[in-house]
Amino acid sequence: MKIGIVTGIPGVGKTTVLSYADKILTEKGIPHKIVNYGDYMLNTALKEGYVKSRDEIRKLQIEKQRELQTLAARRIIEDLSLLGDNGIGLIDTHAVIRTPAGYLPGLPRHVIEVLSPKVIFLLEADPRIILERQKRDSSRARSDYSDTNVINEVIQFARYSAMASAVLVGASVKVVINQEGDPSIAASDIINSLM
Asked: What is the pLDDT of residue 66?
């Protein structure tokens, strides 16, 4: 099984790009599964009564976030292992999480060694476009990503973090640009890099 981790700042378009990747892989008849790391963390956090919404996770104490990360990684690998040797697993997550205590690595050693990806993708776009996308998404609370300077800072920390994580498992790191108006280009780039 080939695993790709697709990271990006909130609003960059990971969900949209991955829906196109799902379509392409389905059309090619390639066994695959796309999972959202945050969903795995959220389900556990809700069950344990730690949070009431997804956006509260990054505000939990660091120890609680680490616990949720580890449990999520193990459950994801269990689910993806059902794909077999020829399958592709794509994991939607963040390379860093901006918290009140500073930047938390989204793929620390205890997570990246469990997931052991072939490629860590950094999905990026112009910070002004990301800011506009965030403003249009009323389903999420993202007031802490309120200007392009913050978005630029998060993108830079994500790059550093992705490379540090990749070193631990021998993965490559690839920047993929999500062009406004055609997410299929980024989706194809991700798939081609895993083939």
From this structure: 84
